[in-house]
């Protein structure tokens, strides 16, 4: 992807619109959406907004009972189906059941993820953040691609993060087999993978009218931070010693509802009908990062690189063949 394609289009929404503002005039009646993690944090708000626009939403969940409880308490009707992104057999089973029962998939929001967790191995000795955030969604999306292809104007949104700036894909040792594990580098690499996956997916499915985008939702306090101690979040400048948001964080952090709006914009905006593959933030296409970019904004060149996107796709397929 050239730097020219990462040029904001001036959506007019700014960083903190409401979901209702972004979805104004959008009718998703008779449309089907999947939102991974669609029962918690910004995923729950994504589900809420899509349902309000008329969509039938499916929320795959590792703990279906907990997801069901969360959704019903929120007054939502999303269908819960069992799936665990760390167990690819469940991902494939979910996709098979979905294909057997539904003939179309209009929106796929790859929202679920883990952040800065202790070193853990899943699958074929894969590092857990890369395996969960990227490989699980890679398999899910590919299993559902036939339905995306046959659903006119389908879109895929992959939740990345400004955390991608912490690391490009370390192709020589993606899974930390020969280097010390660093939870933030691992997280950053997985978020770079989410952006690159959207880029290559868009290239492969563009002829079928399917578009894919990656999204930085913004700084938000959600269950994603569950692996961080209070001391770590103080050191990061997110909260103060009392547990309240720091003055610095309060200025830029978003509510969960505000945090879902870029995903909603990428999934539904007609302003993106002639675009595809871009990394987006604040309901707009993000600028390419420079040395002068704010720490919490813009996209690193390595996350929108065509060659890296193709290589990641091929390396991921190789990992899956060897598993």
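^ Assign residues to that structure.
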């Amino acid at each position: 992807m050239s730097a020219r394609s990462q040029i904001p289009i001036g959506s007019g929404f700014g960083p903190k619109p409401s979901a209702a503002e972004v979805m104004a005039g959008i009718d998703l009646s008779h449309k089907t959406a999947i939102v991974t993690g669609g029962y918690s944090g910004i995923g729950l708000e994504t589900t809420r907004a899509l349902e309000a626009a008329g969509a039938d939403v499916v929320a795959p969940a590792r703990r279906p009972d907990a997801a069901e409880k969360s959704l019903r308490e929120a007054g939502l009707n999303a269908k819960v189906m069992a799936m665990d992104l760390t167990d690819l057999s469940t991902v494939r089973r979910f996709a098979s059941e979905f294909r057997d029962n539904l003939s179309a998939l209009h929106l796929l929001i790859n929202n679920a993820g883990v952040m800065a967790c202790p070193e853990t191995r899943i699958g074929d000795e894969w590092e857990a953040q890369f395996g969960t955030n990227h490989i699980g969604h890679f398999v899910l999306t590919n299993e559902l691609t036939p339905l995306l292809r046959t659903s006119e104007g389908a879109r895929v949104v992959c939740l990345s993060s400004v955390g991608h700036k912490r690391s490009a894909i370390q192709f020589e040792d993606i899974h930390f087999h020969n280097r010390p594990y660093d939870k933030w580098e691992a997280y950053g690499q997985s978020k770079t993978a989410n952006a690159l996956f959207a880029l290559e997916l868009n290239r492969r499915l563009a002829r079928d009218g399917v578009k894919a985008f990656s999204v930085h939702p913004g700084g938000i306090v959600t269950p994603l931070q569950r692996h961080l101690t209070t001391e770590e979040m103080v050191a990061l400048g997110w909260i103060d010693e009392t547990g309240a948001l720091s003055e610095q964080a309060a200025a830029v952090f978003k509510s969960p509802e505000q945090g879902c709006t870029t995903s909603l914009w990428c999934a539904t905006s007609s302003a993106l009908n002639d675009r595809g593959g871009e990394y987006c933030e604040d309901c707009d296409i993000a600028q390419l990062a420079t040395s002068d970019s704010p720490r919490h904004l813009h996209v690193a060149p390595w996350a929108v690189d065509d060659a890296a996107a193709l290589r990641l796709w091929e390396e991921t397929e190789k990992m899956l063949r060897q598993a």
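The chain has two domains: 3-219+259-322, 221-253.
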